[in-house]
Amino acid sequence: MPTARESLLDAALSALAGLPWSGVRMVDVASAAGVSRQTLYNEFGSKDGLARALVRREADVYLRGVDRALAESPQASPTGSGAGGTPTQAGGTPISPADRLVHVAEWTVGSARSSALVRALLTGCWSERLPAPSVRTTAAVSAVPAQRRADAGVPGPAELIAAVRDRALAALEKEMPGADPVELGRYCETAVRLGLSCVVAPPGRGEGHAGYIRSVLARLPVRAVG
């Protein structure tokens, strides 16, 4: 059962689907969540606080999806591993680093298409319909830990890309222990930026974003250290 905070964030997100943020009313959000306005204000402090929490949650949902994309393969075999513990796809073909990064790129494109907030977080383009991110400027500090985190602000596009790159690097270093970490980091960041380019300007009809990204990554060498 969702907490009151989660129910309020769900209600705010649902309201935002049909209204610009300026038209979303706190009383309506509380009513849709089935809680009192006092509960809403206790959790978020203000409408600005609710906005910060909503954007923070969308960023967290996106990053959790990145972690899943790096950890799992949609085509993984029942055993899930080959010789030496290397993850394999159906049919026994090892899952390459490029495959994992393509999964991240696909998640990025899909998330940006389905969530206007994720798209804005990744591109930095905030329309007037959306609650633009902000940092609390007053001295008051929320008693709710999750709200204190939201009030501290959300990552900008560069920070979000760096967070995805670092997650990918940590995952791939385990499978490529001899790779130069600097080059591997650039390889990971290139994949993230390719995915982001597909959000802004999708590839032509002849090639989907997954095929496009895979073909580019296959041509990028990652040298071993030494």
Give a quick precis of the structure.
The chain has 226 residues and is mainly alpha-helical.
Task: Summarize the SSE layout with pairings.
Elements: H1 4-18, H2 26-33, H3 37-44, H4 47-71, H5 97-114, H6 116-123, H7 145-151, H8 157-173, H9 181-200, H10 209-217
Report low-confidence residues grouped into runs of 5 or more.
Answer: 74-88
The average pLDDT is 84
| Secondary-structure content class | mainly alpha
Fraction in beta strands: under 5%
Major β-sheet profile? none
Total count of strands: 0
Order of helices and strands: HHHHHHHHHH
Distance between the termini: 53 Å
Q: Percent of residues in helical segments?
A: 55-70%
Number of helices: 10
Q: Choose one word for the global shape.
A: elongated
Nearest-angstrom radius of gyration? Answer: 20 Å
Notes on the protein architecture:
This protein is mainly alpha-helical and 226 residues long. The protein is 60% helix and 0% strand. It has 10 helices and no strands. It has helices at 4-18, 26-33, 37-44, 47-71, 97-114, 116-123, 145-151, 157-173, 181-200, 209-217. Helix 4 (47-71) runs parallel beside helix 8 and helix 5 (97-114) packs parallel to helix 9. The longest helix has 25 residues, at 47-71. The radius of gyration is 20 Å and the shape is elongated. The termini are far apart. Residues 74-88 have low confidence and may be disordered.
Entry keywords:
single chain; 226 residues; mainly alpha
